[in-house]
Amino acid sequence: MDDLSRRALALLRANRRAGRSARLGRDYAYTSPSPGMYAPQFFWDSCFHAIALAGLEPEWAKRELRTLVSVQRPDGFLPHVIFWTWDWWPPLYWAYTQSAPALRPRMTGMIQPPVLAYAAQRVVEHTGDRAFGAQMLPALRRYHDWLRRERDPDDDGLLSVVSPFETGMDWLPPFDLALGLPPEANDARRWLAYRSLDVRHMLARYRSGAMLARFDVEDVAFNSIWHEAQLSLATLARALGDGGAARRETDGASRTRDAIVARCWDDEAGAFFSLAGRDERKLRARTIAGLLPLLLAGLDARYVDAIVRQIDDPHAFGTPFPLPSVAVGEPSFRRGESSFIWRGPAWLNTNWFVARGLMKHGRERQARRIARSTVALVERSGFREYYDPFDGRGMGARGFGWSTLAVDLLPWAVDGRDDR
Ligand code: GLC
Hints:
two-stranded antiparallel ribbon; 8% strand; 47% helix
């Protein structure tokens, strides 16, 4: 095993939590994103951990995903945070502003980007374990059906999020626009606008209709991930002989892709944007979310070119350590530590999405460049939560689980010409 993989595995083991939860009445085994800061199980973090573990310690990748789906509600819902054990700090705000009111909530009432089917498919691919695939399939089908039923109110193939925190890219500037905050709004006002929305959802007991009436964003990153998830589930279903599910998911993936291209693309700006409200107002701020349509299978080359131009542009995403979460030319871009964590720093998971997307479309040179700089970030600064896109300094939580995704990019970082 190479050194990076060894260090990644050591971190994932150190963050591991397993046992029996008295609160939920069942066994659990998951990787905490960063025990000091994010102790509970987080939905998309767990999927990323499983992807990294698939090649390192596949039995634990399976346990991580099994634990995640073990709390699925009969209607198919899967939460974004699960409190297997109880630590008063830090889960306080997920427990008391993002979960149904209870003295000791067990899970939140919100979701995170649907990376689960892709993660399950990767684990099956690595292990060839059809029994594991067959075990995941019903949960995945129910989960995708829940998303379509509850979160696509206008039935256009694009899912809606009801809170910025559901995108996993909390505080990304387009949400300011969706919340009606003026550009000069100060941090306190911003904090209050984001948090009070979640409190109102809590009081509405997370009923989709009530939440969507307050906040309805068709997020371009969330939906690009959704497109890929449907294709992954189709592949899994086909391999397991479930032709009906395979067809449904393939059709769904095409609808999602076509809707992203038709509705989120802005010809004038030459960029993809998220949409707000029933009238699908474009949220015109250039962020990492607008690069994720690279995940769309069969995306026309003109859109790929437009995204690559932004990636190469030093005034957008072409920083010395790409990719900043907000284009550096945007007035909302921030450098350095801040509580508003998705307003500038580079994150490993988004680098991983973009590098894979570039590879999908044969943009090998750019994909390798991002893979190399991702590995360089970890080598230089360790597995941190996020990094300064100019000097590669590590920031936020330490020993951060999903930054081990760098191991998945390693083959692209070491092979081939060095054309940086
Ligand atoms: C932060 C991130 C979110 C992640 C969580 C746990 O809140 O914005 O995406 O799931 O931390 O790592």
